[in-house]
Amino acid sequence: MRDNSKFVGYLFEVAWILPSVAIPIVLFVSVVITAFAVGIRVPTDVGRVDPQALAQTAPFDNPGIREMAPGVYEATVIAQVFMFTPNSIEVPLGSKVTFTLTSRDVVHGFKIEGTDVNGMVVPGQITKVTATFRRPGEYLIVCHEYCGGGHQAMFGKVIVK
Ligand SMILES: [Cu+2]
């Protein structure tokens, strides 16, 4: 009687140990498969750039705003601790602006208040986000990925006139 209950206890232990070993293995294998076999990419993966060579790589060698067509702009912005370059972008009312972003150092965020622009800026990756500014005023750009001790001071603005 006593031996039998020990055996049942052993079965219960095995019944818990097997899944607790198997589940992490299944998770690890699925991460490896999705990373290498399925080719999972970061969102808005539009290209890569060497973060050490931004000064020599277009368009990041010349950050700023460019008019591509009437009312259509392209803004090249570099994020780094703890600033955006350029820090202030001015466009006319109704402009459609595509932001081409990358980071010089660590992961940053790029959120423009009052728009649906909300991107991650990853070193080595190019991020593109687009917004149309239909309301005049100042739109705050904030870094919303914690990037270090001065993170709360990392912001910029879009001025729409
Ligand atoms: Cu930040």
Mean pLDDT over all positions: 91
CATH topology of the largest domain: Immunoglobulin-like
Low-confidence stretches: none
- H/E element sequence: HEEEEEEEEEE
Name of the level-1 CATH class of the largest domain = Mainly Beta
Q: Please, how many helices?
A: 1
**Small-molecule components bound:** copper (II) ion
Number of domains: 2
Largest sheet: 5 strands, mixed
What structural class do the secondary elements suggest?
alpha+beta
Question: Can you tell me about this structure?
Answer:
- The chain is built from one helix and ten strands, in the order αββββββββββ.
- It has 161 residues and is an alpha+beta fold.
- It folds into two domains: 40 residues; 110 residues, Immunoglobulin-like (Sandwich).
- The strands form two sheets. Strands 1, 2, 3, 5 and 8 form a five-stranded mixed beta sheet that branches. A five-stranded mixed beta sheet has the order 4-10-9-6-7, with no helix packed on it.
- β6 and β7 form a beta hairpin.
- The relative contact order is 0.16.
- The site of copper (II) ion (CU) has 6 residues, from loops.
